[in-house]
Design goal:
Length: about 350
C-alpha cells in the first residue's frame, strides 16, 4: 500500500505544471485599458438599461395626448398635464380582458388596446354597440371570431361574446396613491393586501374600492395576486379606474404611509375594535386585509396602529378578502359621510 501511495505521489509530481512566465511586454494590447466605464443605461445587463428600453417601448406606443392619458389612467387616473408617476412596473405578458362591463370600462378609460375580439352572431345590446363604436372610432384592430375561439382565448370563462387584448398592466408607485388623494382634496383611503394570492379576490377588492371611493390598492411584489385577466373580469372594469401599486416590501411601505400621517388598520376576526366604530375613520386610513387562511402576517400585524374586526356569527369561520374589504370600505364610507 505504501508503495502504491508513493507511485501515485510520483505521478502527481511529474504532472505538476511549471511556473507561468510573465508577459515580458510581449502582449502590450492585453495591458491596455478598456476606456471609460459605459453608463449604466448603456450596459445591457444593468437594470437601468432595461428601464430605458421599457420606457422607449412605452413611448413608441404613444400616438398623442389620448394615448398618454390612457397610460396615466392605468396608473391611477392622472390625466396629462399633471406630475407623472414616479415609477411603474409592468407584468410580463399581454392579458385578455373579457366580459362586456370589463371591456367597456377599459375602453372608456383609454386603456391601450392591441385588439378587439367580437363573437360572430353576437346578440347586441347598448354595451356592445358602444364597444364597437369606440373600437371603430379609434381605429383598433377589430376581429370577428367564433365562440369556440373566444372560449379558448379566455380559458373557458364567461366572456359574453367580447374580449380585448391589453398590454401588460402598469403598476403605480405606492406614493402615487397618496398623491391621488391629495389631488382629490380627500383624506387618503387605501386598501393593502397581505398574502392574498387569488386574483379574483384582488378583482373583488378593486370593485369595492371603486364603489366606496378608495384611492388605490397596494399589493406586495412577491407572493401576491397581480392584475391578471381574472382580476380584470371580477373587478367589472374597476381595474381601469382604481390604481394598483406594488410594494417591494409591504411592511416598509406601511411604515412610510404611517410616517405620512396615515393610520394603519389591520382586519382580523379577533380584533378588539369593530371596524364600524373606528375613532379615526375620517382620518387618512390604510385598511390591511390578510389572506383568508392565515390572516395578517406577524410583522404586518405589529406595524398596524389597531386591529379591527367585522362582527359575524360565531358559526361562520371567516370572510374572504374581497368580502372583508367590501364591508370595511362601506363602514369607513359611512363614518366619513356622517355628520360631526
Amino acid at each position: 500500500m505504501a508503495g502504491n501511495s508513493q507511485r501515485r505521489g510520483a505521478t502527481r509530481s511529474s504532472n505538476k505544471k511549471g511556473a507561468v512566465a510573465g508577459t515580458g511586454g510581449k502582449n502590450r494590447r492585453a495591458l491596455e485599458g478598456r476606456g471609460p466605464t459605459p453608463k449604466a443605461e448603456d450596459r445591457t445587463y444593468h437594470k437601468a438599461h432595461k428601464a430605458k428600453v421599457a420606457a422607449e417601448r412605452r413611448d413608441a406606443t404613444s400616438t398623442g395626448p389620448r394615448a398618454h392619458d390612457a397610460k396615466s389612467a392605468a396608473r391611477g387616473g392622472r390625466p396629462s398635464g399633471r406630475t407623472p408617476s414616479r415609477t411603474t412596473r409592468s407584468s410580463s405578458a399581454n392579458e385578455v380582458v373579457n366580459g362586456r362591463n370589463a371591456v367597456l370600462e377599459a375602453l372608456r378609460a383609454y386603456i391601450p388596446v392591441s385588439a378587439v375580439y367580437i363573437a360572430s352572431r353576437l346578440e347586441a345590446d347598448d354595451r356592445t354597440k358602444e364597444i364597437l363604436n369606440i373600437a371603430s372610432g379609434r381605429g383598433y384592430n377589430l376581429l370577428e371570431v367564433t365562440k369556440a375561439e373566444l372560449d379558448r382565448m379566455t380559458d373557458g370563462s364567461v366572456h359574453q361574446g367580447v374580449a380585448i387584448q391589453v398590454p401588460p398592466y402598469d403598476y403605480a408607485d405606492p406614493e402615487d396613491l397618496l398623491d391621488r388623494a391629495h389631488e382629490a382634496g380627500e383624506p387618503p383611503l387605501i386598501v393593502a393586501l397581505d398574502g392574498v394570492t387569488d386574483p379574483r379576490n384582488l378583482g373583488a377588492v378593486l370593485r369595492s374600492a371603486g364603489a366606496f371611493g378608495a384611492h388605490g390598492v397596494l399589493v406586495p411584489e412577491r407572493r401576491a395576486a397581480g392584475v391578471t385577466a381574472s382580476a380584470w373580469k371580477v373587478s367589472a372594469g374597476a381595474a381601469a379606474r382604481v390604481p394598483v401599486a406594488r410594494a417591494t416590501n409591504l411592511v416598509r411601505t406601511l411604515t412610510e404611509y404611517k410616517a405620512a400621517g396615515c393610520f394603519i388598520v389591520g382586519l382580523d376576526g379577533g380584533g378588539p375594535v369593530a371596524v364600524g366604530e373606528l375613532a379615526f375613520g375620517k382620518d387618512p386610513l390604510v385598511l390591511v386585509v390578510g389572506s383568508e387562511g392565515k390572516g395578517l402576517s406577524r410583522l404586518v400585524r405589529e406595524t398596524c396602529d389597531v386591529v379591527a374586526s367585522i362582527p359575524i356569527l360565531s358559526d361562520v369561520e371567516s370572510l374572504n378578502a374581497g368580502v372583508a374589504a367590501g364591508i370595511s370600505l362601506y363602514e369607513v364610507a359611512r363614518l366619513r359621510s356622517a355628520e360631526d
